[in-house]
Amino acid sequence: MSDNLNLGDNLLVAKDISKNFGGIVAVQKVDFVIPRRSIISLIGPNGAGKTTFFNLITGIYGPSTGQIVFDGKPLGRLKPHEVTQRGIARTFQNIRLFSNMTALENVMVGEHARLKAGLFGAIFRPSRVTSEENNARQRALDLLTYVGLKGKGDEFAKNLSYGDQRRLEIARALGTDPKLLLLDEPTAGMNPNESASLTKLVDRLRNDLGLTVLLIEHDMKVVMEVSDRITVLNFGRKIAEGPPADIRANTEVIEAYLGKEYAKTVAEDKGKI
């Protein structure tokens, strides 16, 4: 099937993706593409299959049907660390930092996927290894500065504010030097000012670093402001896809979020214009 996929300028192409857990269909025959240097949002009600789709891309689950092609090569059944080495990084809906490590150490853990020192180097520490570690440390400090955590490298992750922990997760993901960054509910629990600041950061990731971003987010203000395209899942099925203006006016999307009666009212109001 992959031989006939038209990749075009898409960094990721998912074709006919399904995921079954016993008798439960979490994702149902979804086709999905992510163009290079785009910001794509994946939205839907709770239980729509969004995080499952993230887990399929990052190798936590294997698809029951279909295929995912990343940067021209099938992901197949790669393990999560192998997917990371291919250039895909993620954050999590529930923050998963090393709470008893410093912010700097957390980012350097992310960088480990790109370091070349093996067991011999770790034990005997030749000059090339210490040089690589020094470079990694400096890059980690630069990444902390980039995400807004300058001067906080020595603070334990557990002592950072909630918003700063979210930023630290992004810095750690950036430490893997990704081509595609998956952000799972990055503004969850943030106040409006924190959400606005993080929205600007997501836009900078594309504009400054040339990254491609896939975003799961419930804050529709964030989604509408930052997205080039939005894909909507409901009960594991893709029900809509398009630019923010089209999704905002889509009655099936409104129905999935707010119910049939509200969608009917919106449709009637549109008919009166």
- List SSEs in N-to-C order: EEEHEEHEHHHHEHEHEEHHH
> How many β-strand stretches?
10
- The strand line-up of the biggest sheet is 6-7-8-3-9-10
| Amount of beta strand | 15-25%
Number of domains: 2
At CATH level 2, the architecture of the largest domain is 3-Layer(aba) Sandwich
Give the helix/strand class. alpha/beta
In the CATH scheme, what's the topology name of the largest domain? Rossmann fold
- Gross geometry: globular
What count of helical segments does DSSP give? 11
Mean pLDDT, to the nearest integer, reads 87
Q: What would you report as the Rg, rounded to the nearest angstrom?
A: 20 Å
How does this model look, in words?
With 273 residues, the chain is of the alpha/beta class. The strands form 2 sheets. Strands 6-7-8-3-9-10 form a 6-stranded mixed β-sheet, with helices on both faces.
